[in-house]
Write a structure and sequence with these properties.
Alpha-Beta Plaits; 306 residues; alpha/beta; 4-stranded antiparallel sheet; Rossmann fold; single chain; globular; 2 domains
């Protein structure tokens, strides 16, 4: 398959907030792989060894399949960017670039480095070499077309909250599992059984490959393709959803199908202006908010079902 890279280069007085808003436009198309470039981006712990030049501009990059839907998608992207530009102070330009799948699969690897997520958890892209230090838990990830290497603030905060609240022999569910990184983290932190669900068959396949890569017992987990929790029939002691705010609110209408009293629900993918909306729905559904993390204007919330 051929792909088209849509690179939106912009200038703004609030570049982090602007990059998040542009990313949401791409995510609304259902894209899994969205890259944010920043001249101020944090580099991984192996960046010096694998040195690449820091970007000179702020940019958000999405990849569209080159098919019959492409012209309409490009038109909608341009329209939504024009609408966004009417609401915030920014300048931007869009550059389109054709790319083969093989070239694409290799080119985005330059953006991902070995990352220490917590005091003990290290995320290591499978193509980079890293020797674990004493006491470290290493998660090997090859995100493929599902992306999700743990570098995004929402994923980092989810992992930190999983580490904080998981208990030995917990049962764990990840809604919108992507590359499977949260399932792997839960397994290595002591979960007894795991389940993951995603509406993207590619993500489910990538998740399975990453679980195997990390030597997670295949009898300890199951993966399903489905929309939110519509194919989940069990309840779990710890549930995560690292998805968009509006989808979290919609998910909460059905969350009682997969949680029980004292279950922990961790949700992220929430931009700060939408935090109150999510918290209001959590409280209405009988959850007590027990922890909130904020990083780069993203929010992660841990709550417990009362």
């Amino acid at each position: 398959m051929k792909w088209v890279e849509a690179r939106i280069i912009f200038e703004s007085s609030e570049p982090i907030a602007t990059s998040d808003l542009i990313s949401e436009i791409f995510y609304d198309f259902g894209l899994q792989g969205v890259i944010v470039e920043s001249p101020e981006a944090e580099t991984g712990i192996d960046w010096a060894e694998q040195h690449t030049d820091q970007p000179s501009d702020y940019a958000v990059i999405g990849f569209f399949p080159k098919n019959d839907q492409l012209p309409e998608r490009c038109r909608m992207l341009e329209q939504q960017m024009s609408q966004l530009n009417q609401n915030i102070d920014m300048t931007y330009r869009i550059i389109y670039h054709d790319i083969d799948e093989q070239d694409w699969a290799e080119s985005w690897k330059q953006y991902f480095f070995t990352e220490k997520i917590t005091d003990t958890i290290v995320i290591n892209p499978s193509w980079r070499k890293y020797t674990a230090k004493p006491g470290e838990i290493i998660i090997e990830i090859d995100p493929g077309m599902a992306f999700g290497t743990g570098t995004h603030p929402t994923t980092r905060m989810c992992i930190a909250l999983i580490e904080k609240y998981i208990q030995p022999e917990d049962t764990f569910l990840d809604i919108g599992t992507g590359s499977g990184i949260l399932m792997i983290a839960a397994a290595k932190l002591g979960a007894d059984t795991m389940a993951g669900i995603d509406n993207d068959e590619v993500a489910v396949s990538v998740s399975r490959d990453n679980l195997i890569k990390n030597k997670i017992d295949p009898d300890s987990y199951e993966l399903k393709t489905g929309n939110l929790v519509n194919k989940v029939s069990k309840t779990f002691s710890l549930v995560t959803a690292n998805i968009l705010s509006e989808i979290i609110v919609h998910l909460l209408d059905d969350i009682h199908h997969v949680v029980k009293k004292d279950s922990i629900f961790i949700c992220s993918g929430i931009i700060e202006p939408k935090r109150a909306m999510v918290e209001k729905k959590l409280l209405a559904q009988g959850f007590e908010i027990i922890d909130v993390l904020i990083k780069e204007e993203w929010v992660a919330i841990a709550s417990k079902l009362k």
